[in-house]
C-alpha cells in the first residue's frame, strides 16, 4: 500500500480527513472531464505552486489513467507560460524518474 501523505491528519482529526476524502471524490469522479484531464489540471496547479511531491504523485496517476508523457509536457508548457520558468525546476525534479 502506498503511503498516504495525509496520514497524520487522519490520525489526529479523522473528521477532517473524511471531509478531504469527500472533496477528492467530488473533484475526481464523474463529470464531463475525464479523470486523466482532471489529473493533468491538478498537476498543473501543483507545478504552479512548486509542489514537487504533488507533481510526482499526480504524474504517476495521470499516466495510470492514460496520459502520455507528451500530454504531461504540454501541461507543463502551459504552466511555464502562465507561471514562468521557476515552476519548471520542481517539475523537472519530480519527473526525473517518471518520464
Q: Could you state the order of secondary-structure elements as H and E?
A: HHHHHH
Q: Output the number of helix runs.
A: 6
Output mean pLDDT.
95
CATH fold descriptor of the largest domain: AhpD-like
Q: How many strand elements? A: 0
CATH architecture of the largest domain: Up-down Bundle
Rg, please? 14 Å
Structural class, judged by helices and strands?
A: mainly alpha
Largest sheet: none
Helix % is over 70%
**Terminal Cα separation, in Å?**
23 Å
Percentage of β-strand residues: under 5%
- Give the count of structural domains: 2
Outline = globular
Contiguous low-pLDDT stretches (5 residues minimum) are: none
CATH class of the largest domain: Mainly Alpha
**CATH level 4 superfamily of the largest domain:** AhpD-like
Description:
Helices cover 72% and strands 0% of the residues. The protein is mostly helical and 99 residues long. The protein folds into two domains: 1-30, no CATH class; 33-99, AhpD-like, CATH 1.20.1290.10. 22% of the residues are buried. It is built from six helices and no strands.
Q: Helices, strands, pairings?
A:
Blueprint: H1 7-12, H2 14-28, H3 35-48, H4 52-64, H5 69-83, H6 88-95
Question: What would you say about this model in short?
Answer:
By secondary structure, the protein is an all-alpha fold. The protein has helices spanning 7-12, 14-28, 35-48, 52-64, 69-83, 88-95.
Amino acid at each position: 500500500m502506498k503511503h498516504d501523505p495525509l496520514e497524520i491528519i487522519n490520525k489526529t482529526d479523522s473528521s477532517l480527513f473524511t471531509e478531504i476524502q469527500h472533496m477528492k471524490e467530488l473533484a475526481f469522479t464523474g463529470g464531463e472531464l475525464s479523470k486523466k484531464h482532471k489529473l493533468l489540471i491538478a498537476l498543473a496547479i501543483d507545478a504552479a505552486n512548486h509542489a514537487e511531491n504533488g507533481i510526482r504523485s499526480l504524474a504517476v496517476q495521470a499516466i495510470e489513467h492514460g496520459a502520455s508523457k507528451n500530454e504531461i509536457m504540454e501541461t507543463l508548457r502551459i504552466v511555464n507560460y502562465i507561471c514562468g520558468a521557476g515552476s519548471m525546476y520542481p517539475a523537472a525534479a519530480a519527473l526525473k524518474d517518471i518520464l
